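ok so i was messing around last nite and threw this chain in just to see what happens. nothing serious, just curious
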Amino acid sequence: MAHCTKCGAALADNAAFCAGCGTPRSAAGGAPSAAPSAAPAGSVAQTQMAENVAGLLCYLAGWITGLIFYFIDKRPFVRFHAAQSITVFGGLVVVGIALAIVHTILFFLGGLFIGILFTAIFWLLYLAGFVLWIVLMIKAYQGERFRVPVAADLSEKLFGKA
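result:
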């Protein structure tokens, strides 16, 4: 008869776990069991994503992933990046919508030159947003709390210090 290496209790031939301490039979010694190596009933196996990966994912789809991570992850590093993502990319969306409205109105009132000017401003805004998106994801993955000057202060006011 096999014995548990952890507590020394005798193990039945068909037992997957020690009746005394709950150690799986493969860890307790003896013959290998035919049962799959699953966690015992009632135990919860938790795996958590690394902070730097979660910080990077806060920026992946702009303010949307920032909002998701803000509510599901309570770690300060991740919450900082989530709040900053919401503020930066939410702000860029609002500015983009405002520019689109002004562009449309001025295009009909001012003609082609105003239309070309606002189209150039749009593209510069989107290019700056794209570069900022890449920089923020890289900095978060490197484990840095890179602060976008106005947006980080605004996110601390809106969401509190993380």
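not much to say yet. The first strand starts at residue 2 and ends at 3.
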